[in-house]
Amino acid sequence: MSEGRPEKITIVSTYGGEDPERATYPFLTGNAALAMDVAATIVLQGNGVTAATKGIYEHVHAPGQAPLKQLVDQFVELGGTLLVCMPCMEARSITKDQLVEGAQPVKSARLVTEILESGGSVTY
């Protein structure tokens, strides 16, 4: 990254409550990045959109990890960017008002932009 510009990571997740462990990893990684002063963006696609859906994310808890709700809320509170695939939401009849506070519905072009602007990306 250029001098004076913070490092940035983009994390893509396609898992929700059907796989609590895989739904949790992106937020563990994102929170670690933020703690290291690395800008972090998490993009939720496919069933991953449920990880930012009220009424669902409160019930996801991987063994040995903090509950997903706690990790998601912490990520947003620490200033992480949380992007949610709009077509994926629509396919699951999830509306914007059902998303957790701070989640932003987006389309694919935003994901491409985030990855191109990042120093690295990872997919779960």
What would you note in describing this structure?
- α2 links the parallel β2 and β3 (81-85).
- The model has no long low-confidence stretch (mean pLDDT 95).
- Helix content is 34%, strand content 20%.
- It contains 4 helices and 5 strands, in the order βαβαβαβαβ.
- A 5-stranded parallel beta sheet has the order 4-3-2-1-5, sandwiched between helices.
- By secondary structure, the protein is α/β, with parallel strands linked by helices.
Overview features:
5-stranded parallel β-sheet; globular; 124 residues; 4 helices; 20% strand; Hypothetical Protein Ychn, Chain: A; alpha/beta; single chain
Summed up, the domain count is: 1
| Annotation field: number of helices | 4
Largest sheet: 5 strands, parallel
Q: Would you list the SSEs in sequence order as H and E?
A: EHEHEHEHE
Structural class: alpha/beta
Annotated CATH topology: Hypothetical Protein Ychn, Chain: A
Q: Give the proportion of residues in helices.
A: 25-40%
Kindly report the average pLDDT value. Answer: 95
Topology readout:
Elements: E1 8-13, H1 20-35, E2 39-44, H2 68-77, E3 81-85, H3 86-91, E4 103-106, H4 108-117, E5 120-123
Helix pairs in contact: 1-2
Give a brief description.
The chain is α/β, with parallel strands linked by helices. Helices cover 34% and strands 20% of the residues.
